[in-house]
Write a structure and sequence with these properties.
By secondary structure, this protein is an alpha+beta fold. The chain has helices at residues 17-23, 29-41, 74-81, 103-111, 132-137, 161-170, 176-187, 228-236, 244-250, 324-327, 358-385, 446-450, 458-472, 477-507, 510-534, 549-569, and strands at residues 49-57, 60-67, 112-120, 125-131, 147-150, 193-201, 211-212, 221-222, 258-261, 264-265, 276-283, 292-298, 307-312, 315-321, 336-341, 403-406, 413-416. Strand 16 (403-406) and strand 17 (413-416) form a beta hairpin. It starts with 16 loop residues before the first helix and ends with a helix. The model is unreliable at 446-456 and 567-571 (pLDDT under 50). Residues 35, 38-40, 44-45, 67, 69-70, 72, 76, 79-80, 86, 88, 98-105, 194 line the site of adenosine-5'-triphosphate.
């Protein structure tokens, strides 16, 4: 029975002990954090940005999570704090991760004993408290969730008096002013959004927080126990096992939301695009009508971390899951990563595994066969190309087959010319910097772009690299001269190539001439791409690459490029 002082505080029929029991499904703390990230990502909230921070409030370590999504009305906040309500629907191709109506509760209560939610919609502001400490203190027999709503004029509703008192007494915030200042923090990130603060964080046996906030000030690590063995184990395990930043970088197959950890944006990885020797395969499980795409490739960073990256509705469920051929003594498929989106399987409640069904087992079996085929094929090709080579494929240095960059404004992924030197990319990259004019706007959708393969000539590529380097960072004066001269010599080479090919066409005959013609038109086309990169007003469609006029034009532009670039970096 609620006491008189608790009258008006929403109740559930569950015992408070359930909060802890329910949270134990998260055996790994990052899976709890992922629940909170998913909620902001889902199509009902559609946040563009998400922030994870460590703060200390009144001497206590806290984790804070904030998004600039839709926020919640009072009714929705009540559902968020209750169990089992989930009515998320797909919006176009954006399919929700949330299905069970439990993630927030299990996730937040795994991280700490207490959580407070601040949320703002276009016309309301509400606060809700989900706190094990509070329920213990008032000896509650049922879970109670104090909820408070402010009207637009900042006045709270009369029926919320008991909730307000509970929040001020049992949360970290003891005055209305302090509550408002948290609500204002949401305002700084957008007109609407949600901010969650979790405190009384879980600790290790030695009494320290399970997260290590000191190891890297731009990251949150899972604390390693001091023992030699545990340090060795960490060195062997993928970074995403213990670094929140690394985990968030692969959490979504196609990222839609920017995640920031302790003030630094997480550079998301397009995992299937960061591999070497990529091969796409597909298969149709007997229980499905549709074929499923699988991407295989070699990990370009470490050959020790391999296996299947299994996603479900765009969200990572299992990482580096080795299939049977990778576990056998003969060690096949070393360094091979597979990427698959298994929407046809059912994730377990903590979203870290799939239900162990017949379908799951069949899928894993098929994946093993496919991966082994890929491994054999790559080794066979390599033997054929270089019969004397004795270094195993997994031991050779590899670079990703494709180069992708994410726009800092619209977050779309854009493909750069193969072989592009990423170290020359500026710290921030936007669609309007794209060398390809067809995709030089945030308005253009990625699907069209993804489908387009393109490659460049070596020299043209070097010119790009050079160009980017010059515009992307302030160079020291001696560096400017150096870059300027290499850019100008590259441009000269390109001009000479044009002349040489034209000469060959004039003099040559038969297949030789045809070959030269083909090369020339290809060079002109890719030079035209380069050209529009330097002259943004120009549109590729306006460039007539079939005529000689273009050579003249290109000549001039290459000249001007050098001028423009040097002008650009002179400060
Ligand atoms: N950051 C947020 N912004 C707005 N609404 C949210 C936010 N987080 C949660 N919600 C709301 O709270 C509800 C409950 O979230 P919860 O994570 O517990 O369940 P779910 O996402 O529906 O399903 P699942 O258990 O699979 O995660 C959501 O359905 C959503 O309506
Ligand atoms: Mg959820
Ligand atoms: Zn963009």
């Amino acid at each position: 029975m609620a006491t008189r002082r608790q009258r008006g505080i929403p109740l559930s029929s569950l015992n408070p002990k359930f909060l802890h029991t329910n949270s134990t499904s998260h055996t790994w703390p990052f899976s709890a954090i992922a629940e909170l990230i998913d909620n902001a990502y889902d199509p009902d909230v559609r946040a563009k940005q998400f922030w994870v921070d460590w703060t200390r409030i009144k001497g206590l370590d806290c984790l804070s999570f904030m998004d600039n999504g839709e926020g919640m009305t009072r009714a929705r906040l009540y559902k968020m704090l209750s169990f089992g309500y989930s009515d998320k629907k797909a919006v176009k191709d954006h399919v929700p991760v949330g299905i069970y109506g439990n993630g927030f509760k299990s996730g937040s209560m795994r991280l700490g004993k207490d959580a407070i939610v601040f949320t703002k919609t276009r016309d309301s502001m509400s606060i809700g408290l989900l706190s094990q400490s509070y329920l213990q203190a008032v000896k509650a027999q049922q879970i109670m969730v104090p909820i408070l709503t402010f009207r637009r004029d900042g006045q709270n509703l009369a029926e919320d008096a008991a909730s307000l008192e509970a929040i001020l007494t049992h949360s970290l915030f003891s005055t209305e002013k302090e509550l408002f200042s948290e609500l204002r923090a949401i305002g700084a990130a957008g007109p609407t959004g949600t901010r969650i603060i979790v405190w009384k964080l879980r600790t290790t046996l030695s009494g320290e927080t399970e997260f290590d906030f000191a190891a890297d000030k731009y990251d949150i690590h899972i604390r390693a126990s001091g023992s030699e063995r545990s340090r060795e184990r960490r060195a062997m395990s993928p970074e995403s096992d213990w670094s929140l930043r690394a985990y968030c970088s692969i959490l979504y197959l196609k990222p839609r939301m920017q995640i920031n950890i302790r003030g630094e944006r997480v550079k998301t990885q397009l995992i299937s695009k960061s591999l070497a020797h990529i091969a796409n395969d597909s298969y149709r499980p007997a229980f499905l009508t549709k074929r499923i795409r699988i991407t295989f490739g070699f990990n370009t960073k470490s050959k020790e971390h391999y296996g299947i990256m299994m996603y479900h509705k765009n969200r990572l469920i299992k990482a580096y899951e080795r299939v049977s051929c990778q576990r056998k003594a003969e060690r096949k498929g070393i360094g091979v990563i597979g990427v698959i989106e298994c929407n046809f399987l059912q994730p377990t409640h903590n979203k870290q595994d799939f239900d162990d069904t017949e379908q799951y087992r069949k899928t894993m079996h098929n994946l093993s066969t496919k991966l082994e085929d890929y491994w054999n094929e790559i080794r066979y090709r390599r033997k054929k190309d270089d019969p004397r080579c004795t270094i195993p494929i997994e031991d050779t240095a590899k670079a990703p087959d494709q180069v992708w960059v994410q726009c800092d404004s619209c977050l779309k992924w854009r493909r750069l010319p193969d072989g592009f030197d990423c170290s020359r990319l500026p710290e921030k990259w936007f669609c309007n910097m794209n060398h390809d004019p067809q995709f030089r706007s945030c308005m253009i959708t990625t699907a069209k772009f993804m489908a387009r393969p393109h490659s460049l000539f070596q020299k043209e590529l070097e010119t790009f690299n050079c160009f980017y380097f010059m515009i992307s960072r302030p160079l020291q004066l001696e560096k400017v001269e150096q870059e300027k001269s290499s850019l100008s010599s590259l441009c000269n080479h390109l001009k000479q190539d044009l002349e040489k090919l034209s000469g060959q066409i004039d003099r040559g005959a038969g297949p030789e001439r045809e070959e030269a013609e083909r090369k020339l038109s290809k060079l002109r086309l890719s030079l035209a791409r380069l050209l529009v990169c330097f002259v943004p007003a120009l549109n590729l469609e306006h460039v007539d690459v079939s005529s000689e006029v273009i050579d003249e034009l290109l000549d001039q532009v290459l000249e001007e490029t050098i001028m423009a670039v040097t002008g650009h970096t002179c400060f």
